[in-house]
Automatic annotation (TrEMBL):
Domain spans labelled ABC transporter: 9-232
Membrane topology summary: Peripheral membrane protein
PANTHER family recorded: ABC TRANSPORTER ATP-BINDING PROTEIN
Location relative to the cell: Cell membrane
Record keyword Transport present: yes
One GO cellular component, as annotated: plasma membrane
Listed InterPro entries: AAA+_ATPase (IPR003593), ABC_transporter-like_ATP-bd (IPR003439), ABC_transporter-like_CS (IPR017871), ABC_transporter_ATP-binding (IPR050763), P-loop_NTPase (IPR027417)
Family matches, as Pfam families: ABC_tran (PF00005)
Any one GO molecular function term: ATP binding
Annotated organism of origin: Naumannella halotolerans
Gene3D superfamilies, sorted: P-loop containing nucleotide triphosphate hydrolases
Protein name, per record: ABC-2 type transport system ATP-binding protein
Lineage, top ranks: Bacteria, Bacillati, Actinomycetota, Actinomycetes, Propionibacteriales
Length: 240
């Protein structure tokens, strides 16, 4: 019997066309083991398009995606994947803790709602309707919703966008805790400092292709100057 365990994530030859725009161009990406992998790329490079393919929201023009050896739809349906999109349709009048309890009830072994709400500072605005939350507060709640079901892989599109330093620190701590407890985390950001501090591995995407992949030390030759490497490897404006 084979003892091979399937990769957490494997995308092969992904191509996505929107009319004449090639958003992903023969892109390969894989993750195995639990780690924090950060996707960097200029505006329009294809990061969100890639995450949409990984979550089954978008069918690539060609290429394949597998999460835990299955289609994204099946991996999501099995509760193995948590997703935090860049924007969510507003949950409108629902209050944060009601929303978390509702989402927790969808899962067999959810995280304790009160602990998660305390960890992300959600209990400070627990009774404010979703539509009245600040951008950063909505992000905190979206992140909580992505992880409440104890997924094995979380896909986070710019999770700390709009967060102040206090909340960002809490989120960094939480993401590291997830990794240390065996969860694989793939996230996008435009913040080089965030990438340098959080990532076990960094993938730089430019014009729909992977232009570099490695640890911070590998990518920067030990200098740690990720911004310099990013600027030298990417094209302003992303897709040409
Ligand atoms: N639904 C769509 N229809 C047409 N073009 C699209 C669509 N979604 C994305 N694109 C185009 O595909 C390219 C990649 O966009 P994508 O949103 O994936 O980039 P990104 O790296 O996430 O950018 P940002 O950092 O600005 O969020 C861009 O040129 C964008 O205009």
């Amino acid at each position: 019997m084979s003892t091979d365990t399937p990769a957490v994530l494997r995308a092969r030859g992904l191509r996505v066309e929107f009319g004449t725009t090639v958003a992903l161009d023969d892109l390969d990406l894989s993750m195995s083991g639990h780690r924090i992998q950060v996707l960097l790329g200029p505006n329009g490079a294809g990061k969100t398009t890639l995450l949409r393919c990984l979550t089954g929201l978008l069918d690539p023009t060609s290429g394949q995606v597998e999460l835990f050896g299955r289609s994204p739809a099946r991996a999501l349906a099995a509760g193995r994947v948590g997703v935090m999109p860049q924007r969510t349709a507003a949950w409108s009048g629902i209050r944060p803790v009601e929303l978390l309890r509702y989402l927790a009830d969808l899962h067999a072994h959810p995280l304790p709602v009160d602990d998660l709400a305390a960890e992300l500072g959600i209990d400070d605005f627990a009774r404010t309707p979703y539509r009245r939350l600040s951008g950063g507060q909505q992000q905190a709640l979206n992140l909580a919703g992505a992880i409440i079901g104890r997924p094995e892989l979380v896909l986070l599109d710019e999770p700390t966008a709009g967060m102040d330093v206090h909340l960002r620190r809490r989120v960094f701590g939480l993401i590291r805790q997830l990794r240390d407890s065996g969860v694989s985390v793939l996230l996008t950001t435009h913040d080089m400092d965030e990438a340098a501090r959080l990532a076990d591995r960094i993938t730089i995407i430019d014009r729909g292709r992977v232009s570099a992949e490695g640890t911070l030390a590998e990518l920067t030759g030990g200098s740690g100057d990720l911004e310099e490497v990013f600027v030298s490897l990417t094209t302003p404006g992303g897709v040409g």
